[in-house]
Amino acid sequence: MWSLLTPLLYLAIFTFIFSNAFPDVENYPLYALTGLIFWNFYSNATTTAINSVINSRGVLKSIKVETIALPISEVATSIINLLFSFIPFGILMVLFDASIGFETLLIFIVILLFSLFTLGIGLFVCAFNVYFRDVGLLYTSLTPALFYFTPIAYSTSLVPGQFQLLIKLNPLYHFMDIFRTILYYNEVPSLQSWGIITGITAVFFGAGILVFKKLEKGFISNY
Fold first, then answer.
1. 133-142 — which CB contacts under 8 Å span 24+ positions?
2. Taking Cα atoms as reference points, which of 62, 7, 45, 75 lies closest to residue 143?
3. How far apart are CA 135 and CA 113, in angstroms?
4. What is the rounded distance in angstroms from the CA atom of residue 96 to the CA atom of residue 105?
5. What is the pLDDT of residues 153-203, one digit of tens each?
6. What residues have CB less than 8 Å from 119, skipping those under 6 apart?
7. Domain map of the chain by residue range?
8. What is the pTM of this model?
9. Given a cut of 70, is residue 4 above it in pLDDT?
10. pLDDT value at position 84?
């Protein structure tokens, strides 16, 4: 139920505040929700994954469990919530007479890549959070800033030219862009877009796995 209500609550706020501010964005509720449901997934998955090892230290001390299974399970749970979030999104697509075609099926490939990217972030920060608790607190504090740094409630075209490159350095920008290409514009993403998100996923997922496995040996002495 919360996975349904959370994006709708944000959507109501965004529509009330920003729909008049961005009149050039057609079907603004649909545009905003396209970004919101994936942002909620990323935010919830990384936040819970980061604290998964610390919160389960009692279990890890008494039962032999693969430590990496904890952040993976948190991301998997968030994926389930993400799929439930598509219910209000599907209703909105019908209400706004949005086009649905074979291109829509490509979203599942992007979700897979986005999930691996998110898991990589979660593993990376989770590993350091075991040693330094401030890392998790810092990440949680910076998450709201990252939200506004990512084009979720606004269109990238509204960003001044001198800041366009800065916005595109944000990995989430490229995922949000391809999400909207498929679901909002109902188009097939370019090969360049596929290449960019595949490369981002490989780098962050690979780095997360390597760092987590490297630091895992010292977890038990830092619980």
1. 133/54, 135/50, 136/50, 136/51, 136/54, 139/46, 139/47, 139/50, 140/47
2. 45
3. 25
4. 19
5. 888 888 888 888 899 999 999 999 999 999 888 899 999 999 999 999 999
6. 45, 49, 71, 72, 75, 205, 208
7. 2-218
8. 0.90
9. no
10. 85
Q: Which of 126, 140, 135 is nearest to 60 (CA)?
A: 126
